[in-house]
Amino acid sequence: MGRVLLTGGSGFIAAHIIDILLAHGFDTVVTVRSEEKGQRILEAHPDTPKEKLSYVVVKDVAAEGAFDEVVKSDPPFDYVLHTASPFHHNVQDPVKDFLDPAIKGTTGILKAIKAYAPTVKRVVVTSSFAAIVNPEKHPEVYSEKNWNPVTWEEGLQPSHTYRASKTFAEKAAWEFVEKEKPNFNIATVNPPLVFGPVVHYLNSLDSINTSNQRISNLIQGKYKDGVPPTGAFLWVDVRDVALAHVRAIEVPEAGGQRFFIASGTYSNKHLADVVREAFPELKDKLPPKDIPTDMPADIYGFDNKKSIKVLGIQYRSLEQSVTDTAKSLLSIGI
After folding, report:
1. In a designed cystine with 17, which of 182, 195, 242, 306 is the match (CB 3.0 to 4.6 A)?
2. Strand boundaries in the chain, DSSP class E
């Protein structure tokens, strides 16, 4: 099938990508930030031979030349899935701590592939709905055609920094391909909030992604007196996002395309309703049944037709995703 380099291998989405790559027959090499994280991945796949799954340590994905040696592989790589993003606990300088690393982390791996990995045919970059959304003026329907209009100056404000970093990093990837004319083409995957079951070797409160934190808070009784504002009303299941990454290297016509991977709209009240239905034993920890939803009547729409037509994604329902997520969290005592 081919040999794949997957960056950010211990991330929430990447953990599901690994399972799909192996199931689809790809030889997979993952990058991780430490030996410990790499060993955890191998231990979670005890029956997988080492030529099918291995890891390399890249401590800082945004460092100059971080991927230069990694992409020099024997046998050589055919594809790269770039899910890694710079990791910072303490953002004091938006440019130095967030914007520059996000952009350099993306362009850095593209430069390394162009220079040292001539066999790579396609690179899939994990972007985000953050690079699509216009929070100041929502269109009637969001699709791959939309771009977040955030400016560099706005990105210096903490409330805009994350969205700006995703927007500028994705734009930098497309500009690199246009200007540098490398040996590969790219595709980007743009999901909104990502729900879905946690992978057992990442199981800890620290490893729960921001979206799943809502479901974790619900089942722990933290929203008993009422749910907080929903904020962003679009969601998708992690398994559908992971499959989209793999299909984006398997489907020839996916090259040069941007894919908005979104399953539907939801509100925090919807999450509570699904958990109440699926886990009646948790009712005392959940907010009152009659709390109002904060979803606007004229909520923006979304167009995910391209992902269905080109990648063949069949989206999971909110009920299935939230139930599976809550089940996985309850199984680890959260």
Report:
1. 242
2. 3-7, 27-32, 53-57, 79-82, 122-126, 141-142, 185-190, 193-195, 234-237, 258-260, 264-265, 301-302
Q: Which amino acid is at 203?
A: N
pLDDT by residue for the chain (334 residues), tens only, comes to 899 999 999 899 999 999 999 999 999 999 999 999 999 999 999 999 999 999 999 998 888 999 999 999 999 999 999 998 876 556 788 888 889 888 999 999 999 999 999 999 999 999 999 999 999 999 999 999 999 999 999 999 988 999 999 999 999 999 999 999 999 999 999 999 999 998 866 655 556 777 899 999 999 999 999 999 999 999 999 999 999 999 999 999 999 999 999 999 999 999 999 999 999 999 999 999 999 999 999 999 999 999 999 999 999 999 999 999 999 999 887 7
Q: Which amino acid is at 246?
A: V
Its domain, for residue 253, covers 3-195+234-262+304-309
Token pair 């020839």: residue = 252
Q: How many domains does the chain have?
A: 1
Question: Does 54 map to a domain?
Answer: yes
Using CB atoms within 10 Å of the CB of residue 290, give its burial: 0 to 12 exposed, 13 to 18 middle, 19+ buried.
exposed
Does a structural domain hold residue 178?
yes
Strand, coil or helix: 234: strand
Structure token digits, residue 274: 């699904």
Whole-prediction pTM: 0.96
Residue 325 lies in a domain: no
211 lies in some domain: no
Domain with residue 31: its CATH number is 3.40.50.720
Q: Give residue 39's region: left, alpha or beta (phi > 0; psi -120 to 50).
A: alpha
